[in-house]
Design a protein that fits this description.
- The protein has helices at residues 6-11, 14-20, 30-40, 58-67, 78-90, 128-137, 158-168; strands at residues 48-52, 70-75, 97-101, 114-120, 139-148, 183-187.
- The chain is α/β, with parallel strands linked by helices and 188 residues long.
Length: 188
């Protein structure tokens, strides 16, 4: 196992940090969390769904496959977009899932464009207020915005808090009441 000094840990970006501790995708709550989110989402075959910060497009593909909906999957990272495209092709979902670049803080869509807007474990990497406002802006009236994030179940030691808030989730508040590992409908 690789052992890093504190200074080396501090120099890692969130993804290298997670890779170092053996995680390939940061997905708080795992599949259970996605299922909880999908159970709250009113997705049908007629829905236009936006998955922001789609990562490797696992959820986007699942939505297209399960509900027959049209899904637009956006991410800011070229590597994720590449992997997402490859996964969509491998799943034969190219007609249903469109992958494109996009920043959660400046989404490249007109207002009111989507029925359901999803962001799983993304706002913690961005200006959360701006991200929430963008997610709501592109969601059509009567639609839904659903986001999943981390929370502390118990207060961690100071050093763990420092690493988590400084390295992994720079946009997370350190206030327990404002960090959450749950699916929260913001609109709908
Ligand atoms: C923790 S991963 C979650 C991936 C996926 N949503 C999931 O739950 O499996 C966070 C994703 O958000 C993307 N991301 C980070 N900042 C972003 C931003 N400002 N706009 C869009 N995507 C962003 C990352 O590239 C990464 O793919």
């Amino acid at each position: 196992m690789t052992k890093l000094a504190a200074a080396e840990v501090a120099a890692l970006d969130p993804y290298k940090f997670m890779a170092t501790i053996g995680k390939r995708v940061i997905h708080p709550g795992g599949r259970v969390s996605t299922e909880a989110l999908l159970a709250r989402a009113h997705i049908t075959a007629a829905s236009q769904v936006l998955d922001v910060g789609c990562g490797v497009a696992t959820t986007a593909i699942e939505i297209a496959r399960r509900f027959g909906a049209q899904v637009t999957a956006v991410d800011i990272a070229p590597l994720m977009l590449e992997r997402a495209e490859a996964n969509v092709r491998a799943a034969s979902m190219t007609g249903r899932v469109t992958v494109q670049p996009g920043d959660i803080c400046a989404l490249p869509f007109e207002g009111d464009s989507f029925d359901v807007v999803i962001a799983e474990a993304v706002t913690m990497f961005a200006d959360r207020r701006r991200a929430a406002s963008e997610l709501a802006r592109v969601c059509a009236p009567g639609g839904q915005v659903l986001a999943t994030e981390f929370c502390w179940r118990t207060q961690p030691p100071a050093q763990a808090r420092q690493v988590f808030l400084g390295q992994v989730c720079p946009a997370c508040s350190s206030t327990p009441s404002t960090t959450g590992s749950r699916s929260t409908p913001l609109r709908g």
